[in-house]
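hi got a favour to ask and not much time before my train. below you get a single protein, a line of residues and a line of whole numbers that encode the local backbone shape. could you go over both lines and see whether the tokens make sense for that sequence. a few lines back from you is plenty, here it is:
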Amino acid sequence: MYSRDEFEDRMAEAIWENRWKSHTSYETFIKNHMCIEGAKVYAMEHAVFANHFPRWFGSLVANCPHLKARQYMIENMYVEEVTDPEVENGHYESLVDFGVALGLDRDEIYNYKGRIYTRLCLAYWDRATRAWSWTEGFAAVAGLEAARSPGVLKRGNCVPNNRSVFRPLGLPEEALAHWSAAEQADYSAGGHGDMTLKVLSEFCTTQAEQERILEVLAETMQVRSYHFDCIGRDSLKAAGAPLDAVA
């Protein structure tokens, strides 16, 4: 069995190995082909994901017996759904504002269900939070925030998804508020990404639990990488990128 510090390091390694060791087509898009039409593809798919994300925490809270862990998840949900201290509204609404600034219709974003690959990935995370133990489900969902936690970022080859990525589009600064808020919430020490690993290291207290969490983190990162790769391919196509950039 690992100590808490050792387990956090092993979790960070599992995340990095399955998310950042190799880049997806989305990273190719944002580094080399960023444009309005491609960003619209991403905004639509990511809005569907963001709309579901806090609801998964709701499922976990219902099955979690530990007050401290529940308090953390409820706080996370509040930032996502109600008010983010970094913006005037929650994460989802600020993301919708970003999509509208790109030229998308607000009601279209609200009513959009996602391409089939998005719906398949959502089904994975929905099942993880409903059918598994709360620690497994927490690793599958909160682990997505940990993909840019300090322990993962220090390993290198991680690509930011922040305000600077979308600034070349020439949008008003207020339209990019979501990305500053997300960076503040997830990237820093003590942020949601860092706290994911700390919560798991506190409540996974047997070797079997720790090994299972490492499996889940690897798997959920593979699902997320698949999701980003599909989004990236469609974004590259919308950008009119050459076929070899999409392949």
User: Anything to note?
Assistant: The chain has a mean pLDDT of 92. Residues 10 and 214 are 8 Å apart (CA to CA).
